[in-house]
Amino acid sequence: MSIGQRISVIVILPIIALMGFSGWILSERWSESVQMQNVMAGSGIIATVNDLVSNFQRERGRSALFLGSKGTQYGQELTAQRQTTDDKRGVFIAAAQPAILAQLQPAVAKSIEEANGALVSLNKLREAVSNQSIAAGDASKTYSAMIDRFLTVSLVIVHDIDRSQVKNAALASSLLQRASERAGITRATGSNGLAAGGFSVEQLVRLANLEAEEAEFISLFKEFAPPEIRAAYTVAANSAGAVEVSRLRQTILAAKPGEPVTDIDGAQWFKAATAHVDMLVGIQDQLLRTVVAGATGGRDEANWQVATTAAIAAIVMAVILGLGIVTTRSVTRPIVAMVSAMRRLAAGDLSVEIPATRRKDEIGQMAKAVLVFQQAAVENARLEREAAGHRARAEGEHARNEQAQREATEQERAIVKSSIGTALTKLEAKDLTYRMTGDIHEAYRQLQTDFNAAIGQLEDAMRSVTGSTNMISSGSREILTASDDLSLRTEQQAASLEETAAALDEITATVKKSAEGASHARQVVTTADQDAKKSILVVRQTVEAMDGIAKSSQQINQIIGVIDEIAFQTNLLALNAGVEAARAGDAGKGFAVVASEVRALAQRSAEAAKEIKGLISASTTQVDYGVKLVAETGKSLERIMAQVSEINDVVSAIAAGAHEQAEGLEQINTAINQMDQATQRNAAMVEESTAASHSLSQETDQLAGLVGQFQVGRPGGGDTLRAQLQKAAPHAFRQPAKTQLVSRTGNRA
Question: Which of 181, 296, 361, 681 lies at a 20 to 30 A Cα distance from 166?
């Protein structure tokens, strides 16, 4: 990597780091901007949902009044309210089109789709209210469940907001929605009770709980709401309308169950409760405007931060890049010129001008060092020219000396050629009887003596080799004959062992199968024995479980008797309470109703206890019969286990005998196989020895032929030595038997 590239890397690394950091900041700010944009888009949906929920709450209250009056009052008001609710529903459906939902977050779109799906049951609910086929409490619960679906939409929209100011305002709006819903349910419950002419205990308890829940949501709302919204709510909560609603609620809660509230009529209550709900909805609208304003400010601030960060990052990167380019050029240009001069100097151009020698920095020091190298190269060139002249004079003197040496050598060659050349020609013709006898130069006299002595020794050695070759030929023939006989006998023995091993393998396989069958039978019988023992344990445990069930049934009978007695006593107490309530007159009507319900409950408990007692008695009889059957099963299994044990002993003895036989035959088979393998290896070795003997005989004949090519003197006693050897070992001089080796196939059954 060049210096310029390294400097570029040093410049690029901080630029990359700056780009990464800037990208992270831009991503965060852009994400916040998109989030605020989604909040602004969702605020319109929240406004639509709030408007629709407010009308659903009014319709719920009108329906409660209508059902409480048993359809005699508030029919026209309910019809008008339904028309208004349908108009608001159309606005919500238009805002929940697929094209609009596709622009929102998936969770928000899913929540809106679920809320829209809840509207499917609205027509059926309205029909039930119109026909008075549904209780007022059930209708109110159905409306409340539908409204809760829509309230969930607002909570999902503000769930993922990161900006604390906007998120707190959005949470305050959602909490105020919940408080408004409790106020709406209170309005519907109060309307139903007033229209019905009195409140039940359940309705009064529900009203008290709703008031407490509304107060709790208002308290949470105050914790998250901005100061100006809290101040606006405080003013609205202290208004005359709010005071009137509080008074009416206390009047209703102070009323006695079942008695009419004479100081309040349904229209008065509905008007005051609706004003209270509208007050809460108005605070919600203010909060929603606060959320939109905060989201708009957050979006604008995030966009400004995005633009500012991008501009600063671009300026800083441009400055770093410019400084890097200037630095790179100020360093690389003189270095490139220096490299070019050094290359020309290395190529032999000693006249090149070294640049930057007047600079005071490191590059100038480098140029001065290169200038020293240039001066040294000029001096070396001068010294080389002087050395070349000296070498030329020395080479001329050396050439004259070599010419004189070549002329003397040619004279000696002419002398040696007539004597040594002839001797070498005879030796090339394998004539070991020739000797050098002519006169030669004194310098080659010792060479003549040594050549004659070496030829004489070589002639004696070749004569000894000829005798030894004859003896080797005789021994190789004897070895060849013995190898042929041994090969034939080994082949016959190997064939016999192979047949024996094949037959023994078949016997061993048969016995082994028998042993395996006996072992398998023993395993099967052992498994059956173990299963029988386990079955006995299971039967015993079953008997114990049956006994436990019987005991539990007896205890349950006792408990049911106690329950029956309690029901009887409760019935008496309820009867006495009813009598006392009748004596009390109108003041004891409510207590008389409670006593009647308790008496009916006691009677149902007694009847249920009798039915359970009958079922347990029948179950006890069946359990006793089951115990007897399980006991008989256990005895049968014990007899089967004894018989299986006897069979297991017999099969074990058979399996042990078969296993011992199989092991004995396996050992015999192993020994035979080892003998067969050893015989086969011996046969292979004999075949190799026979082939080697034939090869040795052929090589001996070739050696005798080669030795016979040399001309040597007549051996003294060579025929006598052959005669003595033939007399001592006549079998070595007979012709080898022409036997043909039998190749074994090695196939075994």
Answer: 181
